[in-house]
Amino acid sequence: GADPTGIKDSREAIQKAITDVFNRGGGTVYIPAGKYRITGSITIRPFVTLHGDYVDPEKVKDGDYGTVILADVASLNSGLPALFTLAGSSGASGLTIFYPNQDINNVKPYPFTFFVPGWSMLQTIKNCTVINGYRGIGATLFESSHEMFNVENFKGTFLHTGASAADQGDVGVWKNIKLNNSIWANAGKEYNAPSKSSLDSYTKKNAVGMIFADLEWTQFSNIEISDFNIGLNIVAGR
């Protein structure tokens, strides 16, 4: 029932597929290349991976980003409800997210694109791009803790915060992360791409690349952050 043309709302169809797979013991919900409009939040249930066709945003030709989620959701100046909430032992892979109502000349706040709730573990975000996010990845944010959260090959442009994570126990991994304004600036007219200079003017005054607090034994490698007011902000944990 999901519409790959991006015209009809696919939220209910995608959520139902996730729930069906969860009820059968877990597995993969595959979303083929196309555009899928969603108008509300989706929860990725335990033991389920939501998997799309990945295209590296730095190698895109003719606007083909593979599996694109059109986040046609309400503008809210809060972290939640996230576009995707990842329950324990779940994953998101191969997804490109675009907010069609965002405008650099009239910036709208949005909750996190991906969120890991407290008292959970073993979530993975891999091969995902957020073309024009406001808040990118959030994890627990001081209300509890999480464990073994893995982020790999995550790229995007963010107008507020690329990632914010706090209170992780045991080993998490963040590797191959690239946050900068070129991701949206180079996306073309189809994705309402503004000039990089206009993006820089906004984010260098208003945005932070990554905010981390009290991450126990987390491993980091190949992290590239640019075009923000603050690149990496380490703050006190609980």
How would you portray this structure in words?
By secondary structure, the chain is mostly beta strands. 12% of the residues lie in helices and 46% in strands. The chain has three helices and 18 strands. It has helices spanning 11-23, 182-185, 196-206, and strands at 5-9, 27-31, 34-38, 42-44, 48-52, 67-71, 84-86, 91-93, 96-98, 112-116, 120-121, 124-139, 146-147, 150-169, 173-179, 208-215, 219-225, 230-234. It has an 18-stranded parallel sheet that branches. The longest helix is centred in the first third of the chain and has 13 residues, at 11-23. The model has no long low-confidence stretch (mean pLDDT 96).
Labels describing this entry:
mainly beta, 238 residues, 46% strand, single chain
Global Rg: 17 Å
Distance between the termini: 44 Å
Taken from the alpha-carbon principal axes, the silhouette is globular
What class would the helix/strand composition place it in?
mainly beta
Low-confidence blocks of residues: none
How confident is the prediction overall: mean pLDDT?
96
Beta fraction of the residues?
over 45%
Total number of helices: 3
Largest sheet: 18 strands, parallel
SSE arrangement, N to C: EHEEEEEEEEEEEEEEHHEEE
Helical residue percent band? 10-25%
Please report the total strand number as a whole number. Answer: 18
